[in-house]
Specification:
Layout: H1 3-44, E1 46-48, H2 53-57, E2 70-72, E3 79-83, E4 90-91, E5 105-107, E6 112-115, E7 129-131, E8 136-140, E9 153-155, E10 160-163, E11 177-179, E12 184-187, E13 201-203, E14 208-212, E15 225-227, E16 232-234
Parallel strand pairs: 3-5, 4-6, 5-7, 6-8, 7-9, 8-10, 9-11, 10-12, 11-13, 12-14, 13-15, 14-16
Antiparallel strand pairs: 1-4, 2-3
Length: 241
């Protein structure tokens, strides 16, 4: 190979590298910008910040992955965890939060968020944990939870949820922990809960549940805790417990 051919190949290789690198960079910018826009929308839906943490820290002038309560993946440089628990925040959840497509963990517990969950949260297909314990969420438990295939830990306790326990919870085949105690749920415990073969904790205490306890729940081999105190349940417990 002549010197001219050698340098020509080097030039072509460098050009291809720059082209690919430039394409990757351009593709990354809009993605992290979408995450930033979603979080800024959340900030704007919070009407009370007693400690002024988010208004002073969540700013477009600083990198999103350095914001308080935010964890990003080192691989994709996307938001994977949102933890703003116990910050005395008061507000609602905007639909924009459903754009955090790489989110794995969502923890907004111990605040005073209210209203319901926007259906756009069904887009969080990677979500494994949702913790909204000790807020003022109301209405029915969203059926779209069943569309989140990786959900393993669901904490909905100490809110104002009404209505029935969704039978569609049985679609969460990886679910390990379901805590929805201290709400205003009524009706019977769905027998489909017994199909959750990886369930370890089922806590339904202090609701208004009625009827008998489905025997299928006691056939879950992985279960360690079944808490049903403070309801209006009837019938007998299996002798094999």
């Amino acid at each position: 190979m002549s010197r001219e051919q050698f340098w020509a190949e080097v030039a072509i290789t460098l050009a291809v590298f720059i082209l690919l690198h430039g394409h990757t960079s351009l593709a990354t910018v809009p993605n992290i910008s979408i995450d930033e826009a979603a979080l800024l929308a959340l900030r704007s839906h919070i009407s009370s910040h007693p400690n002024n943490i988010l208004p002073s820290n969540w700013s477009s002038s600083t990198p999103i992955c350095t914001w308080i309560g935010i964890t990003c993946s080192s691989c994709h440089h996307r938001v994977t965890a949102l933890d703003i628990s116990s910050m005395q925040l008061h507000g609602t959840i905007p639909p924009h939060l459903g754009n955090l497509s790489f989110l794995i963990s969502l923890d907004i517990s111990d605040n005073t968020f209210h209203g319901g969950f926007p259906e756009e949260l069904a887009h969080l297909r990677r979500l494994k944990l949702i913790n909204v314990t000790s807020n003022n969420f109301s209405g029915a438990i969203p059926s779209f939870f069943s569309l989140l295939p990786n959900l393993r830990f669901v904490y909905l306790s100490s809110n104002q949820f009404l209505g029935k326990i969704p039978t569609s919870f049985s679609n969460l085949t990886k679910l390990e922990v379901l805590r929805i105690q201290r709400n205003f749920l009524d009706g019977e415990i769905p027998r489909e809960i017994g199909d959750l073969r990886y369930l370890t904790v089922l806590d339904l205490q202090y609701n208004q549940l009625t009827g008998s306890i489905p025997p299928s729940i006691f056939n879950i081999t992985t279960v360690q805790v079944i808490a049903l105190t403070g309801n209006n349940l009837t019938g007998k417990l299996p002798r094999t417990i």
